[in-house]
């Protein structure tokens, strides 16, 4: 039985990946390592906690001794590394915690994998899950490809870029078998309501204002989280060693247009009158260093591995809204505790 470590599996994307691997691969034992920060939530994976081929481990990837001991004890065959500090706005107020988790944490995992595999890399693989934000900002045209130069602008993207460089450096220097993917903006169930889509869904439900940064003309490419999980599965099993794949939704939206669509769909779902939620839109102070546009060219993963998104944006948004409307308790739980303090600080209310 192969032993696979997934880090960050109590978070948004990680929980979808862990569920897929536990259910689809009974011949793997999946170890889910997560520190359960504000973004980690065992409620995201409650349906798999009793599975025979699954173990949850609470722990911090920044703690090198703990990580080394864990790797020695379990002798993992593969690592899917998703644990990270992931929110750009938080990286602006607390950049150091991003360096700790995203850079040092990744280094600790690389060192531990190198140490237990000792150059015997047959059947071993380190998969680093990263972001398109490492490429910086596009103008009105163009797409990020796998050969686009790195040009990160936020502390978050700088920390992810640094971790990407270390993964490749371990591949070149020590021969560590790695694959790396850079993905665009995900959305879907279990998304913590600090990010645009879940934050605005929660605010619309509660008739709170919708804080659009700057002029709202910033553009992102959106991908349904389950489609990302499928791509991750494919790259882990069929991607070529030492290769990078861009993953994207072929689905660019200006923030303001996306917010208007979300308002329309929510009004329909909530039985509110047309245009009611749009009245909540409030333009607020811009995010410092705000990247204008991200857009991914995902043709490499499409041509080489046959992956493409399966869900249209309207379908994905509808599934997402339905999930939030039928998971009121989840939403209440994650918006209690420290959330209110974060929200008030971030939006000065
Ligand atoms: P998330 O913030 O929802 O979850 C991160 C998880 O990592 C949480 O469960 C948290 O408890 C855990 N974690 C944080 N610090 C840790 C530490 N020191 N030790 C152990 N666990 C720790 O993030 P997400 O949106 O699911 O993103 C997952 C990964 O995918 C990240 O690496 C992120 O950079 C990348 N990514 C995210 C997106 C996106 O749109 N969300 C897009 C592309 C890439
Ligand atoms: O591109 C991939 C990245 O997408 C991931 O690597 C990150 O982990 C993930 O958080 C996401 O980053 P963004 O900064 O693009 O996502 P966010 O949801 O924070 O913001 C999306 C856009 O919406 C961005 O242009 C900022 C804007 N925004 C966001 C918030 C939270 C607002 O206008 N108002 C808000 O309140």
Description:
- Helix content is 43%, strand content 17%.
- It is built from twelve helices and twelve strands.
- Strands 3-2-1-4-5-6-10 form a seven-stranded parallel β-sheet, with helices on both faces. It has a three-stranded mixed β-sheet with strand order 7-9-11. The protein has a two-stranded parallel sheet with strand order 8-12.
- It has helices spanning 12-24, 64-74, 88-93, 95-117, 155-174, 196-205, 225-238, 255-270, 299-305, 313-326, 328-334, 339-347, and strands spanning 2-7, 28-34, 54-58, 78-81, 125-131, 178-183, 185-187, 210-213, 219-224, 243-247, 252-254, 281-284.
- It folds into two domains: 2-187 and 222-247, Rossmann fold (3-Layer(aba) Sandwich); 196-219 and 252-288 and 312-339, Alpha-Beta Complex (UDP-galactose 4-epimerase, domain 1).
- It starts with a strand and ends with a helix.
- With 349 residues, it is of the alpha/beta class.
- The protein is globular and about 60 Å long.
- The mean pLDDT is 97.
- Helix 6 runs parallel beside helix 8.
- The relative contact order is 0.13.
- The structure holds nicotinamide-adenine-dinucleotide (NAD) and 2'deoxy-thymidine-5'-diphospho-alpha-D-glucose.
- Nicotinamide-adenine-dinucleotide (NAD) binds next to helix 1, helix 4, strand 5 and strand 7.
- The site of 2'deoxy-thymidine-5'-diphospho-alpha-D-glucose (DAU) has 19 residues, from helix 6 and strand 8.
Write the layout of secondary structure elements.
Blueprint: E1 2-7, H1 12-24, E2 28-34, E3 54-58, H2 64-74, E4 78-81, H3 88-93, H4 95-117, E5 125-131, H5 155-174, E6 178-183, E7 185-187, H6 196-205, E8 210-213, E9 219-224, H7 225-238, E10 243-247, E11 252-254, H8 255-270, E12 281-284, H9 299-305, H10 313-326, H11 328-334, H12 339-347
Parallel strand pairs: 1-2, 1-4, 2-3, 4-5, 5-6, 6-10, 7-9, 8-12
Antiparallel strand pairs: 9-11
Helix pairs in contact: 1-7, 2-4, 4-5, 6-8, 8-10
